[in-house]
Amino acid sequence: MEFGEILRKARLAKGYTQEEMAEKMNMSREAISKLERNRVALKAADFIRWFQVTDMPQIAAAMVCGADITSLTHLLNNLPTLLQAIGAAFALPILSIF
């Protein structure tokens, strides 16, 4: 499995440049770039540290458990809309009483 794109998205979601990420990971910017482009193998220690630095341990846990990260991300991005729809479904019968 190639993790580069997921690593890149996690870094960008946190708002870090490759230089900032490299500093936080105690790596060179070139090493960060190679990881994000799948040019080098991702070590378990770097995997864990990456998601600690980006404050996204839930993504790491989901990946380890074999969850489809694309589907999980889509669900989380659409969660507010889903919750509004659920709330509306419960609110309409109550509002019709008044």
UniProtKB/TrEMBL annotation:
Residues 18-45 form a coiled coil. The keyword Coiled coil applies. SMART domains: HTH_XRE (SM00530). Keywords: Coiled coil. InterPro entries: Cro/C1-type_HTH, Lambda_DNA-bd_dom_sf. Residues 7-39 form the HTH cro/C1-type domain. The keyword Glycosyltransferase does not apply. SUPFAM superfamilies: lambda repressor-like DNA-binding domains (SSF47413). This is Helix-turn-helix domain-containing protein. It comes from Pallidibacillus thermolactis.
